[in-house]
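User:
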Amino acid sequence: MTGTHLLPSDWMARLERLTLGSGRRVAGTLQGKRRSSRLGSSLEFADYRSYTPGDDIRRFDWGVYSRTGKPFVRQFMDEQELMVSLYVDCSASMDFGGASGSDGNVSRKAGENKLLFAKKLAASIGYIALCSYERVAVSCYSDGLDGRLPILRGKGAALRMFQFLQDMPSGGEGSLAAALAQPGAMPRLKGMTWIFSDFWLAEGAEQAGNALSRLASAGQEVVLVHVLSPEEIDPELSGDLRLVDSELNTGKEVAITGRVLERYREELELYRNELHKIASERGISYAAVSSGMTLQEAVFGVFAGSGLVQA
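Assistant: Predicted structure:
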């Protein structure tokens, strides 16, 4: 994954017309495009109040004064930025998929490399936020924080974000709970947190739920993006095989039959439902995507359909 851009320029142009669908009214420190619950200095009129000595004379409404003889100042809605934190799972299990066809292009059935697709999704969400003057923090994790960017702001910071995501390697065992338990790993400011992962968790979904509860308790509007490859969703295997865990390096001999594959699909559906239930109980959004999707299908289909991004 070399080069400067994770995202093609025509895709970036489409993202610039979107905003994140956060329902949170924020009170930040810098002026942005998102409405705050407090009054401030944007151009959107909110209300009048009586003038008091020391008020900004530029807000004095001479028209009202000439009609009523009473001094009033105009108040405006304060447009503040949202703090957006992106966490990308870079564990070994994410580096999967992406077989090429005879023409050298990624086949639709195999899909794109799962980690690369997750990075592109994170880059897309980050770019939407930066174009909307939101603040963005990016972290990659496995069983700890493997890398982290300081807070970015402004469209000009996008190249730095893209390069960081491209350069982060895969490896290690994935553990969201262990990563978030590290000092300084939790977001420092209230805002919106996106987690991109396959959620193949050795500790189980419930322990991950405890970590998600910590995020929600810290004032985060959390979005789980569950990224799986087409081979994981609908595997086409047969015969006597040795299946190896890419993170633990443990293996198991399995005779793959139609019944085994049917049971696997049933268990996968149960696991997805469990993650969705854990998220819903904590007021967390859950979105399931396949690395066999295009970015357009994921962002304008799954994310927009769930209200997570808006035109």
